[in-house]
Structure formats: C-alpha cells, structure tokens
Amino acid sequence: MTSFPIAKTDGIPLGKMIGVQIDGEKILVANVGGEYYAMRAICNHMGGPLDKGKLEDNVVTCPLHGSKWDVKTGNLVKFVRQLPPEPVFKVTVVGDQIFVEK
C-alpha cells in the first residue's frame, strides 16, 4: 500500500467532503466529526458521482438515484434493493496533511 497526500486538514471542513483521483480511481474523502474517511466515489448502482452527493453526518446520498452509503464503512444504508459495499481506504493525518492509503 502507498500513502497519497490528499489535502490539508483545513481543506476539508467539518461535515464536508471532496473528490480526488488516486491511481485512476475516483475517491471521496469526508470529514465526519473531525475524523477523515475515504471510500470509492462511484456508486456501484449506476455509476453516480458520490462525491457530488449530499453528506449528512456519516451518510452520503448518491445524486442520481438516492442510494445512501456510510462513508465510515462503505456499507449501503438505504436503497430500494441491496447493493454490495463500496471499497473504503485507510486515512491518516500527519500534522495538517491528510493521506489516503491505496
């Protein structure tokens, strides 16, 4: 695994998220309660951009069809049918720099 610098801590305010590209994969990084979490940013239902969705607490809602995902675990929270979990990635903070391992 390699750690990739993503942003400074002040670049992702509390309750917000950003989308980044790591090795050609779109990943969202969210600040939930002062902790940072990373998961794949492409909804496995129909490819919706989760990083463009709405983040409420630790749940992101896909802007295309409304599936709800837990950014801490990658698990589906709510949708009309069952979907497999989204991959999550380890996040570390060193000083004021956020890193995602992939």
- From the spread of the alpha carbons, the general shape counts as globular
Count of separate DSSP helical elements: 0
Major β-sheet strand ordering: 2-3-4-9
Low-confidence sequence ranges:
none
Indicate the CATH class: Mainly Beta
Distance between the termini: 5 Å
Kindly estimate the percentage of residues that lie in beta strands according to DSSP.
over 45%
Can you give keywords for this protein?
single chain, 102 residues, mainly beta, Rieske Iron-sulfur Protein, four-stranded antiparallel beta sheet, 48% strand, globular
What can you see in these coordinates?
The protein is mostly beta strands and 102 residues long. It has one domain (3-101): Rieske [2Fe-2S] iron-sulphur domain (Rieske Iron-sulfur Protein). It is 0% helix and 48% strand. The strands form 3 sheets. It has a 4-stranded antiparallel β-sheet, with no helix packed on it. A 4-stranded antiparallel β-sheet has the order 5-6-7-8, with no helix packed on it. A 3-stranded antiparallel β-sheet has the order 1-11-10, with no helix packed on it. The model has no long low-confidence stretch (mean pLDDT 97).
Summarize the structure.
The protein has 102 residues and is an all-beta fold. 0% of the residues lie in helices and 48% in strands. It has a single domain, classed as Rieske [2Fe-2S] iron-sulphur domain (Rieske Iron-sulfur Protein).
